[in-house]
Amino acid sequence: MSFIHPLALLGLAAAAIPALLHLLQRRIPPELDFPAVRYLSAAERESARRLKLRHLLLLILRTGLIVAIVFAAARPLVSLRKAGVSGGAHEPTAVVVILDNSPSSSAVVDGGVMLDRLRAAAQSSVRHTTSADRVWLMLCDGVLRGGTRQALLATIDSTRAGWQRLDLVQAVERAARLVNAQPSPGREVHLVSDLQATAVASGRADVPRGVRVLALAPGHAVANRGIAAVTVSEGAAVIELSGSTAGDGSTPQPVPVTIRIGGGGGRRGGEITARGLATPGSDRAGTGGGVGGGASRATVTVSLPAQSLAPGWWVGEAALEPDELRADDRRPFAWRVSPPARVLATAGAGAFVAAALDVLRDGRRVSDGRDVVISGADGPSGNRAIIQPPPDPALIGQANRALAARGVPWRWTQLGTPGVMASPELAFIDGAAVARRYRLEGGSEDVLATVNGEPWLVRSGSVVLLGSRLDTAWTALPAAPGFVPFVDALVNRIVVGETQVATHEGAPRVEFQTRGADTIGATAFGPDARESDLTPATTSRAIAALGGADRVAIVSIDRLAAELFSGARRVDASWILLVLALLLAAAELGVATRTR
Fold first, then answer.
1. What is the C-alpha separation between 245 and 197, in angstroms, rounded?
2. First and final C-alpha spacing in the chain
3. 17-25 vs 41-74: helix crossing angle, rounded to 10
4. I need a surface site. Which of 176, 181, 385, 522 has the fewest CB within 10 A?
5. Phi, then psi, of 219 in degrees rounded to 5
6. Beta carbons within 8 Å of 27's beta carbon, 6+ residues apart
7. At 409, phi and psi to the nearest 5?
8. Residue 218, φ and ψ in degrees, nearest 5
């Protein structure tokens, strides 16, 4: 219980007044031995007992009357949550309303857009706040927005589905820490989300004690199919699909995929279209903690007519037929069509490099020339050079002097420990064993691959250095399936300073990176692939991930308004005390009148 006017409780001191008056009015009459009235002694004693009881009752009634009036003046607030009563006001509360407008919120569920329902629920939360509350709003960008109730309602009303994925566990934890740091008596977090199973699949929010998390109950599974990724290589595009099933046991149907290159969205004129057919369910996996359906994946390869495209960067798009979630039906990509690299391998490059170049030459990926030179101890030459360490340690000094003369800061030093390769940019060499290598030192940028955390493949300008010779006595890479793609990447992309096409979360588009007048890379933006899985989380999984049963309440949208601020809801009980005071006054009047 709390009080609106706690200072009024000082008036409780007045409750001692009736007791003092009763004590002051007590009189002890003198005793006279009068024989004529002795027969009245017994009656007097009986009457005295009755009067004492009435006086005690008057004392209690008058004291209670004063206490009731004082408490009514202090205006006590009684918690309604413990009493199980709805309605009423609530004490000052710090609250964060999390409106999850991530791409999945634009899905059509039961004939309506999910985001419309989420907006209505978020507006209900904000409308229930008072001027004494501190309120913040968080959208899928993770930014906490403070402001007046009117300003936040306007923000919610103008909110549209975004392109960023919101980590619900982290969002609830951040919001809980914020409200817990406020001096307000009440602290709540209102999560308005479709509660995808993938959004709470791992982790648990650390919610401080005293913070209440209120979340909308998850709905039912919805079938959906989206494009998760597009990887384009010479002559083919690999499209990965992800999504969810409705959980009704129906067999997923084949999904047509269309590839468009160029046209209005490209950097060149003309358009090329290719099509493929993906069969869902061949790579299906259940979603942990999901209701009903499950995650479903598929992959399709679409042949591209590379010979019809001029050399240079091309922009394309992979598209599916429209379904319940339109945000993931299209994904852009960038593709560099390059002329075959003109490559020369010196005798020091080794037999494995020569064999790989023969394969690439047959596939028209390279041709003869001196634009790119792969060498060993023979030293760098040509416009661009790919250099392996010399086989004889005695030649290391000579090779380092040749590098320094060309302005390359890197140099080979002592032998390093064996290990395995790691490269985020060249996935096909990850895990290849290295038995012998030289440490590369002297530079700090353009480290493309490492062994035991130390540089193994580096680039400096138009020179690429390796820490090992491309021979099976040094590394297992020449015998691995990724060796030919590795040599292809070296001569056609890495040595010219061109990076791979990166992917990033955001509104679908392609951005190019340039160095001077040259385009050296591109970034394709699109929604997170996990947004395509519309399988909702189970209630138990959501409660566990968002803070635990003692801090989290999952409610239906029909019960949302009744549950908002119920942890901090209070009702003014002064009217009850005033009624009690009237009853006490009436009882006191009746007892006093009868006494007289």
1. 13
2. 40
3. 160
4. 181
5. -90, -145
6. none
7. -75, -20
8. -65, 155
